[in-house]
Model the fold of this input.
Amino acid sequence: MTNSAANSDVTTAGVARLAFIAGVVGAAISVIGGFFDSAQFFRSYIVAYIFWLAIPLGSLAFLMLHFLVGGGWGVMIRRLLESATRTLPLTALLFVPLLFGLQAVYPWAAPEHIAEDEILRQKSTYLNAPFFIARTILYLALWGMLGHFLNRWSRQQDASAELPAGKLMRRLSGPGLLIYLFTMSFASVDWIMSIEPHWYSTGYGVIWVINQGVAALAFAIVGLAWLGEREPLAARLRPSHFQDLGNLLLAFIMLWAYMMFSQYLIIWSGNLAEEIPWYIARTEGLWGWLPPLLVIFHFFVPLFLLLMRDVKRNRNVLVWVATGVLVMRLLDTYWMIVPGFENSAVHWLDATLMIGMGGLWLGAFLWQLQKMPLLPLHVTLLAEETNAHG
Done:
């Protein structure tokens, strides 16, 4: 294993190059399509953005959780989480194009809608473009700062085994988790719920926090299995590490199901005209087939499989479960956002923008991944975990 934090144990340049190429091609096709239908471009863009943002933000939350509670599961995926958080500057940059299409995505940003809608006028103190942009800058800046300092101190810890660096990461992670939970709750209201400004849910922010946790954890499992054959991970990785990650994934899937069902039950029992249309739009026509699909493959199938110890300890099987969960996260994100648009429909820009943004993000992630060793240096927990796990 290398003695320098500047050198990595893995080279991902080739895969990163392919991801960047796919991203550039997808983005180029999408921009061309945007010239013919700008409104659809921005609506497809927000769906792709929310899906891909979930992985680095969920990774930021799990990284801070690991620094607070420790555990071998976190040591094994720490570099994956750190690499994902180092893409937060890119995700901040990717938000900029949306600023040119606010009126296409958000009814409250269009003056003609405000003029004829009393509810929008009442909410205009909060839902207006300048305040929306200011809040967005604040969210992205806070997330970027958390990721920056955690990665900076991690490098210091690798370079010189500085004990203060580990203490600083723990001290920041407590308030950092609270900042993430608070800001992401508001961001979900601003970026997603305000697409349908007449509708509201008090649990909406928590749902999106859980969504990001599920996406980041599933992605980390796939990444760990891919890197697990490489040294020094291969010498330290144990089936019990995958079992721990499988247990975490199971817990978050159950949380997702609980929050989604609770929201539905509350709205159904309340039977309020302001809340019911959200579900009506998502259970009629084309969208009607997605709820049962999500119930089966986002909850029951993963629940059944992850309850089995052998599945969680078998990296190959667990990877398939995690991959399926990521696919369901994509469909769930699409289902929660797209029906909220006027005259919503499936469009080819949905696919090209998802590929374009995903290719750029994956390329940046893989580029960051090769910048540091696959395992943290000078962390005494590594030796403890090697002996403790069988």
The chain has 18 helices and no strands. Residues 5 and 276 are 54 Å apart (CA to CA).
